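Pipeline run #58 for the internal structure catalog. This entry was flagged by the ingest filter as a single-chain record with no existing model, so it goes straight to prediction. Upstream metadata was stripped on purpose; only the residue string is passed forward. Reviewer on rotation: M.T. Logging verbosity set to normal.
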Amino acid sequence: MLVPERVELVRLRLGLTKIGFAESLGIDRKTLQRFEKDGYDLPQSCIPRLTDLSGYPEDFFRDRAKIEYPNPSGVSFRSLRSLTAASRNSAMAAGAVAFIFDDFVNSEYTLPTHDVPTEVKSVSPAKAALGLRAQWGIGLRPIGNLTNLLEAKGIRIFSLVEETRHLDAYSLWRNDKPYIFLNTLKTAERSRFDAAHELGHLVLHRHTGSTHSSAESEADTFASAFLMPKEDLYAEIPRVRSLSQLIEKKKRWGVSAAALAYTLHKLGKITDWHYRSYCIALGKFGRNVEPNPMERESSQIWEKVLTDLWRRGMPIKLVAEKLNVPERELNSLLFGIAFKQAQHAEVIEREPLRAV
């Protein structure tokens, strides 16, 4: 018999309503409801349609291992008010698939334990950001590769390819492990800021939750201070002369020109009039277009893990078969690294992975 919970995961991942899902399977809604609630199996004719529609193998739907979703009460979603239920559910279902892969990796490798504060005293978001920089030994210098830094501090980072401008990222704690999911269809600079924003949620809101009215502004303030300490900003930009200056300087901190302009405006380094004119000028580049763009960050942890698995005779295709999930799903969660490795069969020789 097919497992209703696993069929439901796929429906959510596809972003379909129950009516739309039933129609795609060639059944009526009552048949689907009986399957979900009353223990009736789906008609045999549904199975080929289900596997074709989802790309998931039949064995996935018969596996009785429990599916674990991100806990909704502990997840921070940006742009929650604008986010549709379908997009939110699809992203949460992607998290459930990521947990399947992460549990497999943890059974094979020893990954870094987290070094994220679990209880922050009553300090401002900016002070919490500077305190974390001090804890991690960063000081006030710019952060080169934020993704690699977060991974080195034990934060699991997965990528999302959700085609919606309203879903930037989300984060959560699971089994005392911090997770961040990033929408990689955003610009590289936006993804960096989103990662720092979610780090803020992990640090500031683990125990209070992130649904209160000030949570998003607190996480934004944390991200700005973490990526752009004001002392470094003052030293590098004692005076703002033009937008072109900001477009050039933004690379130092790996942020968008808009984020840099906003921070400098908040610090009183840009007048209201100039800030408005800069925003208008930047808007002319178009949505999701960043002037003088930086190279997108990727995951070093997942690259090392997948490379070592490949050397052991377990390419991503075999991993996907072992976990009964589509290879494309793993690829979309792992920054496209698996696809790149498949394109380049010759992998650079490195020391065997023992602990990353």
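catalog note: The mean pLDDT is 90.
catalog note: The chain is about 50% helix and 5% strand.
status: ready for reviewer M.T.
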